[in-house]
């Protein structure tokens, strides 16, 4: 029987599709609501048999996608419908927590069991999740994401333009565009650094993991802004969802 698992992580903006062979990433693709069926069919034709599929969604409901998964895989898990009890008991969470945050928590815990953990996920929103040494989630924070900050400045002011994160990010801006970009990007970086330093002072064995669509922009600046060590893992959420799909007993 194939040990391959298809993990579909639907966010607010994109759909991340990852195929695992055990714990190893075999294939990954980022899709969107307009092209998911074409992309998924192509992936399934390339990888052959999969043992199971797991679908996680924090975006708008897509019943067609859910039905597509359920009809093509003998074992299909729709994580957006309910969380397994063993996860709720282990991590002290409830189903109001987003599936993406659960994936990040499980992925981080599988890599750093026995440590205090901070997971930072920079997406549409920036989420911070804290786990103690027992793996229990003790709390977190939510703040506006990078793109949301750019769009909000444009939408709620009369003259500020709509720009993005790609461009010069000087220490001090010298015109409207660089002042906006530096203010937003460096503001996010300083926010993250402050969170990391506060928790690191309390827990010297802290493992910090950074994930999300903006990490390539944020991580170099974050390294300049704090001495707290951190890891960047673009597959962290998918790794956690893969653990959930396979209900790995060694995880507990």
**CATH superfamily membership of the largest domain:** ATPase, nucleotide binding domain
How much of the sequence is in beta strands? 15-25%
Helix content: 40-55%
Strand arrangement across the biggest beta sheet: 3-2-1-4-5
CATH class of the largest domain: Alpha Beta
Task: Give a brief outline of the structure.
By secondary structure, this protein is an alpha/beta fold. It contains eight helices and ten strands. A five-stranded mixed β-sheet has the order 3-2-1-4-5, with helices on both faces. A five-stranded mixed β-sheet has the order 8-7-6-9-10, sandwiched between helices.
Structure description:
The protein has 252 residues and is an alpha/beta fold. It folds into 2 domains: 4-81, ATPase, nucleotide binding domain (Nucleotidyltransferase, domain 5, 2-Layer Sandwich); 85-239, Nucleotidyltransferase, domain 5. It is 40% helix and 24% strand. It is built from 8 helices and 10 strands. It has helices at 36-47, 63-72, 85-91, 99-111, 146-155, 176-202, 215-225, 236-246; strands at residues 4-10, 15-21, 24-31, 52-57, 76-78, 117-122, 125-131, 137-144, 207-212, 231-232. Strand 4, helix 2 and strand 5 form a beta-alpha-beta unit. The two termini are 25 Å apart. The model has no long low-confidence stretch (mean pLDDT 90).
Chart the SSEs and their pairings.
Elements: E1 4-10, E2 15-21, E3 24-31, H1 36-47, E4 52-57, H2 63-72, E5 76-78, H3 85-91, H4 99-111, E6 117-122, E7 125-131, E8 137-144, H5 146-155, H6 176-202, E9 207-212, H7 215-225, E10 231-232, H8 236-246
């Amino acid at each position: 029987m194939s040990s391959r698992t298809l993990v579909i992580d639907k966010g607010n903006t994109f759909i991340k599709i990852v195929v695992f062979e055990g714990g190893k990433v075999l294939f990954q693709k980022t899709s969107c609501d307009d092209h998911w069926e074409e992309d998924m069919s192509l992936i399934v034709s390339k990888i052959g048999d999969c043992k199971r599929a797991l679908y996680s969604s924090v975006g708008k409901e897509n019943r067609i996608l859910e039905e597509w998964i359920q009809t093509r895989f003998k074992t299909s898990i729709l994580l957006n419908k309910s969380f397994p009890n063993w996860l709720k008991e282990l991590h002290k969470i409830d189903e109001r927590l987003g599936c993406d945050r659960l994936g990040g928590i499980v992925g981080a815990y599988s890599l750093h069991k026995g440590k205090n953990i901070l997971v930072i996920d920079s997406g549409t929103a920036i989420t911070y999740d804290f786990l103690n040494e027992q793996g229990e989630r003790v709390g977190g924070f939510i703040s506006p994401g990078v793109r949301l900050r750019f769009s909000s400045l444009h939408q709620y002011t009369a003259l500020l333009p709509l720009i993005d994160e790609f461009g010069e990010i000087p220490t001090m801006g010298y015109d409207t565009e660089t002042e906006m970009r530096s203010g937003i990007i460096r503001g996010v970086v300083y926010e993250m650094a402050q969170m990391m330093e506060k928790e690191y002072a309390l827990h010297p064995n802290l493992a910090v993991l950074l994930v999300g669509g903006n990490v390539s922009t944020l991580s170099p600046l974050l390294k300049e802004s704090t001495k707290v060590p951190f890891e960047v893992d673009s597959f962290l959420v998918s790794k956690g969802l893969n653990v959930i799909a396979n209900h790995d007993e060694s995880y507990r």
